[in-house]
Design a protein that fits this description.
The chain is of the alpha+beta class. The protein contains four helices and six strands.
């Protein structure tokens, strides 16, 4: 009996030890499964973040590559013997455009005064409606000539700015409005066609036809209802589907361009999580002035 009792006790102890070991093994298995689950989720999140980062870097790299190609093409053109003659011709054209713009502004003033005189004469019976209409048409024609001359002058200044930045700084003596291209601040330039569905910052709906289609410039900066502070703010998407914010800066003259360049440099020189860096820019040509659209990452609720 004593032998049987001892054997029974030993068997019970062995069963208890086996049960305890099984419980510990099950606990370890559950712990390992939990760790694996967390690790898998972390790996997935890390991989997704890495993919997004690669997409952004790839887009920036493509923009920089395109900028490099454009600069190489420009330098190749400048290496030709005709570069010097083009520089002299460009200076002459800019000065002629300045003189033409001044003359046209004087002509606008003269035509406007003549129109006021004709309108007063009409109320007093000294002029006919046909005469007033003829003067009005002359004013409109001169104003259209002014806009055309301003656009031509901006094109000349843009070409001169590119040449002055690359190899011929002497061109800056031709006009105070010759400035460095914004690409000189180290931010890649996009074409306006890279942005689609341009709309109000607070709107999730598509813009009306013609107001935010691919490649079209956002509405003019004079629209008070669409501006935040002193700048026009728009939301858009890139062809990759990434949402961005566009902040508009009218480039009326060299001072406005220089102020924008300083702001871009200052913002991008600050390395802080609370400071949003400029990722790219685009230039939209307008009747009154060019508009620089600075691209910023879109932060919902921010």
């Amino acid at each position: 009996k004593r032998a049987v009792g001892a054997e029974r006790d030993a068997f019970r102890a062995a069963v208890d030890a086996a049960a305890k070991a099984a419980f510990e093994i099950e606990s370890r298995i559950a712990h390992v499964e939990a760790v694996l689950s967390l690790s898998s989720a972390g790996v997935r999140t890390g991989l997704l973040a890495a993919c997004d980062n690669v997409k952004r870097k790839s887009g920036q790299l493509r923009l920089l590559q395109r900028t490099v190609i454009e600069r190489k093409n420009l330098l190749a053109a400048l290496a030709s013997p005709s570069a010097e003659s083009r520089t002299a011709a460009l200076i002459a054209e800019i000065r002629a455009a300045d003189d033409q713009a001044s003359d046209l502004h004087d002509e606008v003033d003269d035509a406007t005064n003549e129109l006021r005189k004709a309108e007063r004469g009409l109320t007093r019976g000294r002029s006919t409606p046909e005469e007033v209409q003829a003067v009005s048409e002359r004013v409109a024609k001169v104003q259209a000539a002014v806009r055309e001359a301003q656009a031509r002058r901006r094109r000349l200044l843009a070409e001169a700015s590119a040449l002055a930045t690359s190899t011929i700084p002497e061109l800056r003596a031709a006009s105070i409005d010759i400035a460095s291209p914004l690409g000189a601040v180290g931010v890649p330039e996009r074409d306006m066609s890279a942005y689609i569905n341009i709309r109000s910052l607070d709107s999730d709906e598509a813009a009306p036809a013609g107001a935010g289609a691919a490649g079209s410039a956002p509405p003019d900066a004079t629209s008070a209802a669409s501006s935040r502070g002193t700048h026009v703010i728009r939301r858009a998407e890139l062809d990759t589907g990434e949402s961005v914010v566009l902040k508009g800066y009218p480039l009326h003259d060299a001072r406005a361009r220089a102020a924008l360049e300083r702001e871009i440099r200052l913002v991008n020189d600050i390395n802080h999580d609370a400071v949003i860096r400029v990722s790219a820019f685009a230039i939209a040509t307008g009747d009154a002035a060019d508009m620089a659209w600075v691209e910023l990452p879109y932060a919902p609720g921010g």
